[in-house]
Amino acid sequence: AQTVTQSQPEMSVQEAETVTLSCTYDTSESDYYLFWYKQPPSRQMILVIRQEAYKQQNATENRFSVNFQKAAKSFSLKISDSQLGDAAMYFCAYSPVTDKIIFGKGTRLHILP
Amino acid sequence: KAGVTQTPRYLIKTRGQQVTLSCSPISGHRSVSWYQQTPGQGLQFLFEYFSETQRNKGNFPGRFSGRQFSNSRSEMNVSTLELGDSALYLCASTLGTGAPNTEAFFGQGTRLTVV
After folding, report:
1. Could you tell me the CA-to-CA distances from B35 to A58, B44, B62 in Å, in that order?
2. Mutation for B interface: A25, A92, A94, A100, most B CBs within 10 A
């Protein structure tokens, strides 16, 4: 079965510091997509970053970058220069090419001023 | 363009009642997925509809059902409500044609409280 595991239910980071959120997944597929979604308190879920499994280069979006280790089935999110607005629930998600998106249970990130 | 619209935003229902939630996807998107979000459980997949057909189904009892209309709008129905059905129900829309269009756009959700 395809599963996504986020082992850190909650994390805290000092403002302006760097934090890494962990995610592992299980699949027998060779082609798939991985995502990190952000859900701010009482606000809509939005896509932070996506990674195509066939691409070896790690995706980056401004202060957000991923460390994609396909053999280890690991997909961590690094947030640099953390800001108060980064406080949210972060969900790691996996999707085969033409199938549903499967989400992890989320990591709640607190930003300490 | 308009985002994903879910109605209503909040609902309070009594055990045993039934409820219908609505989701209007982004214009042009043909796939709508439904998720149940509860504290500690993350997002659990309910089902996905594409072009009026259920394409995928999660591991939920038959009390949970859905449908999609020709304009891609989708409804989700829960019958014989139980206290454990209290959750945030999220709808996500995608183009539905697979990669590279897998990015899901979410609505704000419907907060269902069963008392």
Report:
1. 28, 5, 15
2. A100
The token pair that represents B57 in the structure block: 């189904």
Nearest by CB to B48, which of A37, A100, A103? Answer: A100
Q: Is the peptide bond before A113 cis (omega within 30 degrees of 0)?
A: no
- In B51-104, where do the E strands start and end? 53-57, 64-68, 74-78, 87-94
pLDDT category of residue B66 using cuts at 50, 70 and 90 = very high
Cα separation of B67 and A110, whole Å? Answer: 38
For the segment A19-56, what is each residue's pLDDT rounded down to a tens digit?
A: 999 999 999 888 889 999 999 987 889 999 999 998 88
Residue found by looking up tokens 């189904």 in the block: B57
